[in-house]
């Protein structure tokens, strides 16, 4: 698929993201007590394959219970390579337990990377974390528009976490990333993967790392000096991940940073945004 036109490119990424969220919503609706993380991840992969996905930036992940807070073995920072504890395991879902579903399909040459949080039944901590996350969604493009460096924006997320009384658990991710850049994938599609990551997508990310090193920017957006540069135009998969004790929640979606220094989310019709709008309407009606 060739998508040289900017409008067509944005439409392709938006469609890929919608498909990824549709996948997560479909599997979340089918979660049952006793289901393992591996079973949930496999169902996501099967659903995506049934809807035309043949390639991945990374294959689906699922985390249940205290694993949503990325503590213990899963919280070890994998600064070189990827921690196997991140991968879906044998943890079984229970009533009231938090969950996170995460997948990154490649559709044509467009990459989506999404995170979907919830609970099996009622979980007040998850509900509060989801409310808190909307503040981060509003904060990030506002800080970019204010002329902050990418590291400063990430530090503003850290500071908001402190004010909310939660932890920025994305700091347990490889390279402590808040986000990573995505781009149209070059070359022919590849079904090969390494440690659940697609080879074509990994090659592109490595190319961006090399390009950024030469030009003074990083495709891995975090709070360190490596990201202390002006916002880099393009698409970024942004994933603030909040934790409170043994419960975590996040969203992950595509942010478009423009050449003019502004930023906007690629799509406002996403599950966590709809949830917030519903809750806001309910509060007004009360």
Automatic annotation (TrEMBL):
TM helices/strands, residue ranges: none
Residue ranges that the Swiss-Prot or TrEMBL entry lists as coiled coil: none
SUPFAM superfamilies linked: Creatinase/aminopeptidase
Pfam family, one: Peptidase_M24
Gene Ontology MF terms in the entry: aminopeptidase activity
Domain named Peptidase M24: residues: 12-171
UniProt KW keywords: Aminopeptidase, Hydrolase, Protease
Superkingdom, taxonomy of origin: Bacteria
UniProt-recorded name of the protein: Xaa-Pro aminopeptidase
Organism name: Zavarzinia aquatilis
